[in-house]
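Researcher: Can you fold this with tyrosine in place?
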Amino acid sequence: MCARRIVHQPSIATRHRQWEPCNSSPLGTDAAATCNDPVDEQHTQSLNVIEVLRSRGLVQDTTSPALEKAAATETLTVYCGFDPTADSLHLGNLLGIIVLTWFQRCGHNPVGLLGGATGRVGDPSGRSTERPILSEEQIERNVQGIRRILEQLIGSGNGAGPVPTILNNLDWFKDVGLLSFLRDVGKFARVGTMLSRDAVKSRMELDNEGISYTEFTYQLLQGYDFVHLNREHRVRMQIGGSDQMGNIITGLELIRRMGGGAADAPCFGLTFPLLTKADGTKMGKSADGAVWLAADKMSPFKFYQYLLTTVTDAEVIKFLRMLTFLPLEDISELESSMQQPGYKPNTAQRLLASEVTRFVHGQQGLDQALKATQALAPGSDTKLDIETLEAVAGSAPLVELPAEQVLGQALTDVMVAIKLQESKSAGRRLIKGGGVRLNNQKVSDEQQLLSEGDFIDGRLALIAAGKKNKMLLRLVR
Ligand SMILES: Nc1ncnc2c1ncn2[C@@H]1O[C@H](COP(=O)(O)OP(=O)(O)OP(=O)(O)O)[C@@H](O)[C@H]1O
Ligand SMILES: N[C@@H](Cc1ccc(O)cc1)C(=O)O
């Protein structure tokens, strides 16, 4: 195959003068559809996926300088693995999905691998302690959760390139016996090399508990995955975060020693930088405060808010390059505009939050996030519905009270009970001054009693005392 063609949308500057995220997706509400999907025939460019990834800050290392040429002249099948250590992927894992998507958009074949087998062993990479052993049921639940996300984000093919495949390494490991593994794979692995891997060395040096034999052998399992995928599915490339380089090289060495990766079809590895939390540590599944991709673990609203409120001006351009598919020229233009006097603060963060939320949760998820953001804005009079309120629940302060302690009671009494006001008289004064809103509607009656009708869907009400002090009240029956 010759240099690949990728089609670019018109500049978002021409589409959205105010740098506002687009609100319609060319592929409908498909979760993976973004407004910058490559659909405009007029803006074509021949792009090499490796050059694209480099230009977007998505390459930490590659295993061979020959990769660039291979990517430009051949169709590569590329895989990225995800272990089922939780029932959802997180923002850090999204980089792997984005890199796979870039391969797909440039005409290569992406494969998402579920670590049904490797998750039972535990990758020591980037960990200073041994992983807890998860129950079989938990691992199965986690596999299902991650499969759903992969299917949603890369499984559909996204209309932008070859349809990707999702595989589970338990499907081949379940039939491999210990003796045959030791004879057929172990013979090709060198213990000295295995010991020299960072993930092993650091555990032997740092922790006087050392490393278990189980986690020590992890690299061979991931290495064998690459051998199997190369033999059975013609996979020639593995990608992963920079913590995966040792495991990727183990795979390449095994392929070579076991007679694969012929000169006319060499194999490659590529790593991307790790996304880190504010304290500089890796964002991970097992780390605290993970930014989940599954909507039932983190609502699209909360996901959107995370990107909007925690990404600094210093980081936002880097994140736009790495986490979105927006044309680089447009991102550079936005970067320049950030230095101009007319720049509206957080414009870049809003664009980032919108693009990434749409990619992960689809147009519907983004709409929900925007609606909830608007509903919570200071002084908002947006009409509320139950979906918006439920999306907000979990992010805004929420109090639950038995219905009998609320219905028929004065609003001012309830405001004191839920600690939104210090006293009834303060509540009355605030109502008189026009500062109290019930479900975003101004309250004018200082004696107002709360009734069933004040609770949307009979369950939730949003009470605001002043512009910023908001609380959700849920009725318990
Ligand atoms: N913060 C991150 N930034 C970029 N890539 C990441 C990040 N975290 C994980 N990855 C990558 O995602 C892929 C799958 O990682 P995996 O799900 O097994 O580990 P994890 O999410 O780090 O979970 P755990 O916290 O349990 O180690 C790997 O390629 C890994 O390098
Ligand atoms: N070891 C990877 C996941 C993985 C599993 C199996 C593979 O073949 C590849 C990657 C991680 O923990 O991040």
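Model: Folded with tyrosine in place. Confidence is low (pLDDT under 50) at residues 1-45.
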